[in-house]
Amino acid sequence: MKRTLLKIAWLVVGLALLGWVIARAGPRNILDAFIALLGRPGCLAGALGLMVLARAAFLAKWHVMSRRAGADVTFRQSLYLFGTLALVGTFTPGRAGELVVPLLMRGGGRLTGVALVNRILESSWTLAVGVLAALFLLDRNSVVARLWGVGLGLAVLAGVMVVMSRRRHMEALHGLVRACLRPLARLRPVGWLLAQEQRYADGLGLVYEASERLLRPVSFLLFSGLMLAIWFMVCGSSYFLIQATVPPGGKEITFMLVVVAVATSAVAIYVSPIPGGLGLSELTVVALFIQLGYSGEVFVPYLLLARVFDHLIVIVLYLVARAAGRELPAPAAPGVFS
User: Taking the complete model, does pTM exceed 0.70, yes or no?
Assistant: First the structure.
């Protein structure tokens, strides 16, 4: 009961933040921006088309990773699992639902490992791209700053690869996290997490095996190529929406600025206790634009449209997955990680 009330409280906080952002921008200005978008069907079609393609690329990435991790799944089974995973992840705090859906849907330890590795690599990519784009944006004339940005981004990805590409590294990291959490076991969330860790300890070998397979050079390069394409499509759709909804006459809006905004929004969603980062994500991006010398309120229509369109695409994807996908087969032997 308390947990449900806490979730409701966070949702109310998110709605309040979103309402405040909308009020600051002005409902009339937002309506005018929506009308302006309808007057530019090319931008609207481009934004929606790239959003759909990005989700399709996410699905392809999930299926390829699942197969390379050793999971014997068909595309229709990947479609069913990914559609549910995307829906639950979109509407849970920090997209945490992505990590439990494979297990709840009989995906076992291997697909749970895919979800974990996928989440860590996507987060690392987001951080690296965001830092790199910010350095390019804030200091356009400094070659040294750009080289530091490239180096930092590569260091983040290389560090993740080194840790996750060997089972002994993952086991050591797991032991370190467990040792750090034990003194906090009396806290309910920490105690629950430690209990789950103990419950599934016997099946972690499949998670480690999936991690090792996915961090091999060929698999990682394939993942990186797909992520690069996804980032281009996501940022391209945002660029179309901004160009169509932001009134002309202000500071130039470059593609690099859009990359920084998308990365900032993604990070806000990852760390937010509010489901889907509702309100907090929009507020963070508006604050970013203000810090960069823009009128942040004019970007609110773009943020609202991006959220609405993304949610609609995820819901349609889920319905298609339910209709055309196929459930995973039941495990051959009993066990939570079979």
Answer: yes
